[in-house]
Amino acid sequence: MISSAIIPQPLARLPWRLIFVIVGIAGIGFLTQYSAAGGSVRPWAMKQGITVLFFLSVAVGMSTIREATIKQLAFPAYGAILVMLIIVEAVGFVGKGAQRWIDLGFIRLQPSEFMKPAIVIVLARFYELLPAGDIRKWRAIWPAVALIGVPWALILIQPDLGTATMVLLGGVSVMFIAGVPLRVFLIPAGVLGAAIPIVYQFMHGYQRKRIDIFLNPESDPLGAGYHITQSKIAIGSGGIFGKGFLNGSQSHLDYLPEGHTDFAFATWVEEWAFWAVPC
């Protein structure tokens, strides 16, 4: 908090340290996308900058919302996002083999992204309403499992394993922090671990391929493992001191796929070296 007779109190109360950290991280992203485009703000850096400023403004605006209001909106917001996930399954936009978006014409919404914070908020509200003495009882478990399981299943069948996993981990984390007994987590984890070979057989082909390549990217260096292999080459080529801003050969010569998004880390490290990673 900044205290000053000159700065208006609403501004002084903002978490400026957090805002500066966010702006700093966003700045690194802006520079990386600028470099990946060959030293141009188009097509990625300018769009990214505008998006960050917009949502930072939204976040600042949301910080003025009273806690009581957020609590009141927790369940309605969760329900609305759940309805959107059902709409996605019914008439959602299909792209790159997945059905994850609602096409509004001027924008394509991906409701699964909204579910990430929503699942945390709604479970926090649920456990706040639950009597403290019931935290170790069955009534503290099955509603939470239902609140997590329904959106998790809807997102998984899109298919979007990554986002479904994030929703699951977010919900389970809230349950753990709320004080749900440890055995509730250990038993399903043990069952899941034992069932991995069976689950693997029922995964989509692209999901199995991702696991195989993660374990052994060199098994297909020119095919499914190409992305990971080239990212490792980019990171290694930066050496100790890096190649310098705008001098990354892997990204500029198009050896590094998606150097402005999925492999932005490799683009950054190749030019700035590992010493810049903590920055």
Number of domains: 3
Overall geometry comes to globular
Report Rg. Answer: 22 Å
Secondary-structure element series: HHHHEEEHHHHHHHH
Beta content: under 5%
Instruction: Provide the structure class.
Output: mainly alpha
For the largest sheet, list the strands in their spatial order: 1-2-3
Strands, total number: 3
Number of helices: 12
The proportion of residues forming helix, as a percent range, comes to 55-70%
* Average pLDDT: 86
Which consecutive residue ranges, at least 5 long each, have pLDDT under 50?
A: none
How far the N terminus sits from the C terminus, by CA atoms, comes to 23 Å
The largest pleated sheet is described as: 3 strands, antiparallel
Outline of the structure:
The protein has 279 residues and is mainly alpha-helical.
Strand and helix layout:
Elements (H helix, E strand, L loop, with lengths): L8 H4 L3 H21 L8 H18 L4 H25 L1 E3 L2 E6 L4 E2 L1 H19 L12 H15 L4 H18 L4 H20 L2 H11 L10 H12 L11 H4 L11 H9 L7
Antiparallel strand pairs: 1-2, 2-3
Helix pairs in contact: 2-3, 2-12, 4-5, 4-6, 5-6, 5-7, 6-7, 10-12
Note down, in words, how this protein is organized:
With 279 residues, the protein is mostly helical. It has 3 domains: 9-62; 67-194; 213-276, no CATH class. The chain is built from 12 helices and 3 strands, in the order H-H-H-H-E-E-E-H-H-H-H-H-H-H-H. The chain has helices at residues 9-12, 16-36, 45-62, 67-91, 111-129, 142-156, 161-178, 183-202, 205-215, 226-237, 249-252, 264-272, and strands at residues 93-95, 98-103, 108-109. The chain has a 3-stranded antiparallel β-sheet with strand order 1-2-3, with helices on one face. The longest helix is centred in the N-terminal third of the chain and has 25 residues, at 67-91. It is globular. The two termini are 23 Å apart. The mean pLDDT is 86.
